[in-house]
Every structure is written in C-alpha cells, then in structure tokens.
Write a structure and sequence with these properties.
Layout (H helix, E strand, L loop, with lengths): L1 H14 L1 H15 L7 H13 L4 H17 L8 H13 L13 E6 L6 H14 L4 E6 L4 H14 L2 E3 L7 H15 L3 E6 L6 H18 L4 E9 L4 H13 L4 E5 L9 H9 L3 E5 L7 E3 L2 H9 L7
Parallel strand pairs: 1-4, 1-5, 2-3, 2-4, 5-6, 6-7
Antiparallel strand pairs: 7-8
Helix pairs in contact: 1-12, 2-3, 3-4, 4-5, 4-11, 5-12, 6-7, 8-9, 10-11
Length: about 325
Amino acid sequence: MAEEKKGFFSRLVAGLTKTRNAVVNGLDDIFNGPGDVDDDFYDELEEILITGDMGVRATDDILEELRDKVKEQHIKERGACRQLLIDTIKERMDLGENAYRYEDEKSVLLLVGVNGVGKTTTAGKMAAQLKHQGKKVLLAAADTFRAGAIEQLTEWAGRAGVDLISSRAGSDPAAVVFDACTAAKARGTDVLICDTAGRLHNKKNLMEELRKINRVIDRELPDCLRETLIVLDGTTGQNALEQAREFKDVCEISGIVLTKLDGTARGGIAVAIQAELQIPVKYIGVGEKIDDLRKFDSAEFVDALFTRPEEEE
C-alpha cells in the first residue's frame, strides 16, 4: 500500500509539472531574489498565485495569513517564507476530514457537471473502485440527453463488472433513476451511482431535471446516504470555478471531483475552488487509468505542487 501511495504521488508530481513550471518556479525566483519581505514582495507573490489560477479570494486569504505569520515570527529573509507559504496553503485547503461514509453505508451518489468534464468516466472509475472494495454497485445512465454517454457507461459497467440501468436516448432521466432505485432495493445494492446530463446553458431545465431526480431518490431510497459530487475539468481553470458556482445554485453539492489535472498549468484551481466555495475536493484525476482517480489529500497535493526536481526521488 505504501508503494502504491508513493507511485500515485509520483504521478501526481508529474501531472502537476506544468502548474509547477508556471507557478512554483516563479515563486522560487521571488523567494531567492534580493530585497526584504516588504509590500513589493507580497505584490510579486500575489501576481504569481493569481496567474496560477489560485483565484483572487484564495490568494488574498493566503497572503493575509502569511503576513500575520511573518510578523509574528519576525521574519526578514524572503527564503524563510517559502515553507510558511506552503504550510499556509495546506491549512487553507484542509477543510477537515473529508467524509467517505458512502463506502460504509447504503448510499446514492449523484454526479453532476457540464458535458466533457469526465463525468461518465468518473462514474465508471468510482464503480470499479467500490466493486474492488467488495461493494455491490449499480450504475444508472441518467444522462439520456447524450447517446454517447449511455454507450460509454455501458462499456464502463462491463469493465468494472457491475450492473447498469439504462434506457434509450431522449428518455426521462428521472424515470431511469426510478428504475435504478427499484433495482437497487431488489438487488441489495450498497452504492447506486447516477450519471446525469450537464446542460448548464439551459439552467432552468437542468434545475427541474435534477429536482425530479432528487425527489425520486428521496421517495424511493429515503434511508440511503446521499452525496452530490460535481465533476470539474481542471484544465479549464477559472471556468471550472464558475461552473461550480452555477451548479451550487441548482443543487446542494457535497464534494468536488477535479479531473484532468495531468498536463495542465492550472492545477492551482483546486486551491481556488475550496477557498471560494468551501466545498471539499474529494477526488482528483491525473490520468486515464482506473487508479488515476484518487481520494484527495490536501497535504499530498500541495507537496506535489511545490516539489522541486531534486526532491522528486
């Protein structure tokens, strides 16, 4: 298990290379540069952090806290601020213990998000991982708006070795969820995972669709633990943050899945999203393989973000 964790950390470090090149190298130039810890120093830090998609609010909060620590500890050298900054970001990212109660209780997971973010793939990967843990998992193809989503989830169900409830393209998503709830009760399912459509451009229809789905689940599986996870594409930076805001207006989101962090210079968006919305990032994806979707560890993420080339071994 330790070797597996180390392997994922290495992939995380590799996946965040572009973010690190865009952000961390610039920060190190500031920390190693001449001058005192003054207003110019903080202005330079602010520019780099915002450039890395950490967001204005998160950056302001991080730098305000850094200023307080520097003052309290009477720090004068720029270089001494590097670890302080890392520790401050870790603290901002840690919203407490991220609950994964659905692994131990009868649960329904609702995956929301716009098209193209990796929502259906995430549903398949989560199903495979939960099945590997010995859980009885059922997938519901409630993204009936897109025929490709049904086909994709059918393929994932086969790969994961789990059952799938689906219907033809264009059918009522709430009806699919009703059938899935009925099947979940009959088959003794531990975790029901529902993939949904992501037509954010038609917010009113999306809102009503999600409300209908939620009413069905509330009625049919009232005793099950509920999770609504929004899937966001890390490569879209601030657009991902805006999508999260929009969906938060539509439904009660309990967690975030941040995909496609490998190969993007915008990995800092994970910091921005948690700071802005106070919703925990529960999973991150750094590749296409099943085990490239992992539970989020804020300390591990920040360490990977700030790892220097000589520290990678």
